[in-house]
Design goal:
single chain; 57 residues; mainly alpha
Length: 57
């Protein structure tokens, strides 16, 4: 019984760690894509879309 509880706790911790790492990776990938897109658009359009949109709104 005790082994089963330990195994269950270990599996839950592993699952939480995996979910946390996936969220961290997802956010970092979004940040990288946003940064690269902004850089690309800045080069192509000659301005930063984010800063110019902030001025409009």
């Amino acid at each position: 019984m005790e082994r089963t509880i330990e195994k269950s706790i270990e599996e839950k911790i592993e699952s939480l760690i995996t979910q946390s790492l996936e969220k961290i990776l997802e956010k970092n990938i979004e940040l990288i894509v946003d940064t690269k897109l902004d850089s690309y658009l800045r080069k192509k359009l000659g301005f930063s879309p984010d800063k110019n949109l902030e001025k409009i709104f």
